[in-house]
Structure of glucuronosyltransferase:
Amino acid sequence: MISHYLKCFLLLSFVSASYSYKILVWSPTVSKSHMIQNGRVADTLALGGHNTTLIEVDYSIEPGSVKAVRHANYWPVSHHHPDRIRGPRYLEDILSDSIYKEYYVFHDFFDFTDDFCLDFLRNKELMDKVKAEKYDAIFYEQYDFCPIVIAQALNIKVKVWMSSCPQLAHQVAIMGIPFEASYVPAAMNNPNGDRMNFFERIGNIIRLYLMYDVHVSAWNRLDSEVRKIFGDNFPRIVDIAKTADLVFVNTDEIIDFPRPLPPNVIHVGGLGMSSVHKDLEAPFDDLMTKGPKGVVLFSLGSVVPTKLLPPQYMKNVLDTLAKFKDYFFIVKVCKDDLSSIEYANGTENVYVNDWIPQAGILAHPRLQLFITHGGYNSIVEAGTFSIPLLLIGMIFDQPRNARLVERNGWGLSLDKLSLLHGAEEFEAKLTELLTNKKYKTNAQRVSRLMKTKPQTGEQKFLSYVRFLEENDGHLPELRSIASDLSTIEYHNLDILAAFLALLAILFTVLGCLLLKIVKTLRLLFHAKEKIQ
């Protein structure tokens, strides 16, 4: 009997192994949230039976500074590039609302990433090491073009594109996703929801164009340099990118703005949430017992250091929190923000620290509200645990994300500039969220929808990867040809032009006939007068 079960086990193991990929997950260290998300991707693949390696490439944060993976293999690639993007331009004026500033921020970013990519491609030892592993597939984020080039150069057949935030304009264009600028807000630095007036739609189109243009400029620059390494016949980056068979987007269809998507673009928001560590250790287990009416969490994420905000900004926040005596507040600040740490010292209902176990706190039944910057991972975590939100969108996709929570009624957004001039609006919205039960009710509905939908993000992710494996690693049947069409064809401008031309011809002919008729009638009238 034991022998029989052993044979069955070995057979199942063989079948599983025969349908398992060897996968490289490319993870640039641009922010801790991106590193965490890519780690969740790698761990999910590893737990799904794939031989997975997370390669953490040193862009901004030192590789290994975040424990990104528990189950996948880990490969850090550090370097000492003189232009390493520490303290990028977007932190110089964090409270700026200019859409053009973000455009130049991305220009700076791509100047650096292009240089790093070329260093990597010219490093024979690194390239040989990747090649020797004989990866079947490579997973990579939407804003980094280097893994696209590596996949082509090393003949990694299966390419899977990912987006750790709502999709940017270049990925939308390349993958043939409809540009619905009238009701789909652009991802970056956009304070609008899906209902926009005339001027907001103009701004939305400008944002889409700027984000598309900065990516086009970046891959065109990289194209010319890559051909110096691999020859003039090396394909264009955009043409390689089009061959990705699947796109996994870290958004949730329950939470996000609805939009039309091709069948190879899949929502996988909440990926890895099933294995997130939720147990609280000291002092947080004790802190969650404080506050007669519960606990509120405040965090602006890892991208925005609170020390770069004007001192009065955090003072306005802390003064307001101190007024709500029935609640206990856990506030995350950066470790160098000595001003906020000292100012909060002695406030009985406020605890300040530079690190918090966010998922564990959000999962705790005594948490009443999460005051957040609006990063997508934070929103998905809050939705999972039925937590209402007060969102202060700072940069990138955060202002847009704040609107999608408001849209479904489980939170409110606050203009980041309002806390420069006082805290009246902040206090009013905090009061509304803590006293009006509709936000909790709506948050519970969002959580229920996320948990009872036909497939979770994790289930969809693994099933589509398996689907890809079982069909030779290619799914051209799912690809939209929209990106292959010219602008004229895509928007049917030739048909519109032909229709307008026909109308012009028709009106011209009718006009000529009318003139002819009028002229004939006038001649007849004059002839009749002469006869009389």
